Amino acid sequence: MSTKILIVDDSTTDRLIISTMLADYQTLTACDGLEAMELIAKNPDIDLVILDLNMPRMNGFEVLEALQKNPEYRKIRTIILTNYDEIDNEVKGLELGAVDYIRKPLNLQSLLIRINIHIKLKRIQKMIEQDNERLDAMVLKKTREVAATRDITIQALVGLLEVRNVESSKHTIRTQLIMKILCDHLSEKPKYQDILSENYVKELVTTTPLHDIGKVGIPDNILLKPGRLTEDEFTIMKKHVDYGVNALQNEIYCDEDVPSFIKTAMEIVGAHHEKYDGSGYPRGLAGAEIPLPGRLMAIIDVYDALTSKRVYKPAYDYDYSINLIRSESGKHFDPEIVMGFLEIQEKVIEISCKFIQDTDDAEVWS
Hints:
Layout: E1 4-8, H1 12-21, E2 26-30, H2 33-42, E3 48-52, H3 60-69, E4 77-83, H4 87-95, E5 100-104, H5 108-163, H6 169-186, H7 198-207, H8 220-223, H9 231-237, H10 239-249, H11 260-271, H12 292-307, H13 318-327, H14 335-343, H15 345-354
Parallel strand pairs: 1-2, 1-3, 3-4, 4-5
């Protein structure tokens, strides 16, 4: 594609001289700023503008201001033409976005050299922009591939739980949807505005299904027991947290290269059985010591366990479950998260009603 240059000058002679000098380029001419802007609107692919500052109707400064206001025109390079005694105009023109200037009466050789330099710079700029577009496309493709790999891996791991009848697909759907609406609601509160960003919420929702992945390591006679566990059985059951964390830990090869979603998943897995008062497991963390993903997952997991049918109990009704959540504020659960949960309880119940389980879950609330 040939280089396109717009010559803007109220002097017919200067326009003719410059056009003749630039015979190797495609040139357009305008006698003032208004005509120039009309031509630019019709020819947004103009590469360079040679612009006189002193013109009737619309002067060169006004043209420069108009070019700066329109993002589509900011890539157009502009060389301004000034008189020898207009140093202030040169400075003002450069401040308004011009890339160079040349003084009248015109030194044609100097003007041609400067034009050729800026045309080369423009071509280099286009090459860089094209390279950046290709790099952006490659990065986007790789990002999508990584996200797809992550999602497939999570689905495969959760599939292991479903095969062992640890939890149903409906449980996964419900907990993810509740995590999403709870995070979105909390993100509107001052304390969480800077924490629960769009990307972080997406990570939380994506990794929610992994919270009990460690249960694949628990023997069936304990995992699927249709009744209350003995003290020894419960000790074994609690190991599912460490099993899950260790499984994710195996995906970490370098401390400086840990994918953020792995960190989030580890916090969900490792902390969703901690209790706000410090009586939970495996580490007995309390209050803000418990990572936020664990505090969020704790209330979601318990609520869904209460309202779902288990081999050892029927599903409790929603009022009973909500009241139990309320009563555990400050003990099992973070009070601020409980408050947010109660504020959206109607939406939570709506999710529970919409995605009622179709198979018995064997997950134990312990």
